[in-house]
Amino acid sequence: MRRVDLPAADLVAISLALGELRTVLLLSAEPRSPGVGCVPERPRGAPAAGFATFLRTHVEGSTLAGAYEAGSALAVRFTREAGEVLLIVEPGPNVVCVRDGRILGALSVPRLRERDLSPGRTWTVPEGGRPIRAPAALDALLSAGAALGQRREGKADDDRDAAFARAVRTERARVARRLHAI
To answer: How distant is the alpha carbon of residue 108 from its chain centre?
Structure first.
């Protein structure tokens, strides 16, 4: 693993390298598209802070050792000298960092608290939610990454449309107040 970033508040991007092969593993906690996938380039976004800095301390420099389904969640396993660390994508949605069964941190601690969990406590498999499945091969992982990106772009379009609609409503209300004052 070369680098960990949070290009968006609900997206973890992990840059991986094996010889000449370079890819970026995405862990999405976006409510409409939780899951994992790979993309060829790291998405650009916010500077590293908070959870990204935390993950850099606990995961950067490790080796991707695999992924497996844990109930409705998906655990991505990393190893390094300090031991094994799991990044678990939950359908809640959330991304949780776990070592030796204990929660080290989470992208959204409030979502953990909704399940009566917190850092330091034992992680438990979440109940309910749409299960997040592990892609079976690299091609499936790349396809999943492209699909995550498309859904995220759709979210951005929806966010822009909503912002535009709010601006139009605000301007209409301002004009109506001025007309009423006349």
So the answer is: 10
Q: What is the pLDDT along the chain (182 residues), one digit of tens a residue?
A: 778 888 887 888 888 887 777 888 888 887 777 778 778 887 777 666 788 888 888 888 888 888 888 888 888 888 988 889 999 988 878 899 999 899 999 988 998 999 899 999 999 888 766 666 666 555 555 565 666 666 555 554 454 555 555 665 666 676 677 777 77
- Cα–Cα–Cα angle for 55, 61, 65, nearest 5°? 90
Q: What amino acid is encoded at 82 in this protein? A: A
Q: What's the gap between Cα 27 and its chain centre?
A: 4
Beta bridge partners of 105: 97
Measure the CA–CA gap between 48 and 68, rounded to whole angstroms. Answer: 27
Question: Under a CB-based contact definition with an 8 Å cutoff, are residues 160 and 119 in contact?
Answer: no
Structure tokens at 177: 């107040």
The residues, any chain, with a CB within 8 Å of residue 33's CB and separated by 6 or more, are 147, 148, 151, 152, 155
Residue with tokens 């655990």: 75
- Pairing of the two strands 102-106 and 3-8: unpaired
